[in-house]
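Worked example

This section walks through a single chain of length 67. The input is the sequence exactly as stored; nothing has been trimmed or padded.
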Amino acid sequence: DDMPTLADIVSGKSPGRTSDDQTTCFLNILGLGYQFAAVGSVLYRKAQEASIGNEIPTDWLTQVEVP
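Given that input, the structure is written out below as tokens.
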């Protein structure tokens, strides 16, 4: 089976899934976490469209001091 990179799919070099019965699997071999940003963006937009969820303060997600 062909296993294109995320860059290949995003750039259009590879079509990604071609039918609903296929599964997308992203292996994070570089440790960059692109898949988390991509999924988070989709979930955030869907929540906004459905008017569900709660916004939280940005400072909950940032670290001021280095341990």
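What to look for: The radius of gyration is 16 Å.
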